[in-house]
Amino acid sequence: MSFADADLIARILSREDHQAFAELVRRYQSPVRAFLTRMTRGDLHLADDLAQETFLKAWQKLHTFRGDAKFSTWLFGIACNEFRGAARKRKELALEDIEELPSEPDQMSAIPDSNLRLDLTAALKTLNSSERAAVLLCCQNGLSHEEAAQVLDCPLGTVKTNVLRGREKLKRRLSL
């Protein structure tokens, strides 16, 4: 029997049910890790550390979850904050606009179509952190623009702009 997120959260808050929290972790571990892996530009160790911190904070702060938004939105907000904290500590991941990597048409056109996933991963690395976060949250994780704005703690228009710009950059990069 599969419980809704709200039911699991109620069990956690009322009885500190570790099994219920383990179920939430099972549900969201892969999407959170995938999001953080792409945000850290493929640094698996850092992404795993940030995901672990995300779930630890979620356990510690679950009593602050008001239920105004979906649990996944709240959880991605924690993940995003963990990434921002790491970015402040590691200048190479700074959230300020990162200049696009120089385009290498010869190398990109030599990659066969079967490597589309690798192409997408490389193309995502060319986006600045704000665009990458907005694209990943909305296009990969299915959050609405409004939910992504909540996660990223920025205006709705900024998220829409970042998704639009990010998708255009990806389209240009992938069409090489």
Give your account of this protein's structure.
The chain has 176 residues and is mainly alpha-helical. The chain has two domains: 1-95, RNA polymerase sigma factor, region 2, helix turn helix motif (Rna Polymerase Sigma Factor, Chain: A); 102-176, Arc Repressor Mutant, subunit A (Orthogonal Bundle). Helix content is 70%, strand content 0%. It is built from nine helices and no strands. The protein has helices at 5-15, 18-39, 44-61, 71-89, 105-109, 116-125, 129-140, 145-152, 156-174. The radius of gyration is 17 Å and the shape is globular.
CATH architecture of the largest domain: Orthogonal Bundle
Number of helices: 9
Number of strands: 0
Question: What percentage of the residues does DSSP assign to strands (E)?
Answer: under 5%
Contiguous uncertain segments of 5+ residues: 93-114
What name does the CATH topology of the largest domain carry? Rna Polymerase Sigma Factor, Chain: A
Q: What is the approximate shape?
A: globular
Name given to the CATH homologous superfamily of the largest domain: RNA polymerase sigma factor, region 2, helix turn helix motif
Please tell me the total number of domains: 2
CATH level 1 class label of the largest domain: Mainly Alpha
Q: What is the straight-line distance between the termini?
A: 48 Å
Question: Averaged pLDDT, please?
Answer: 86
Radius of gyration: 17 Å
Order of helices and strands: HHHHHHHHH
Largest sheet properties: none
The percent range for helix content is over 70%
Structural class: mainly alpha
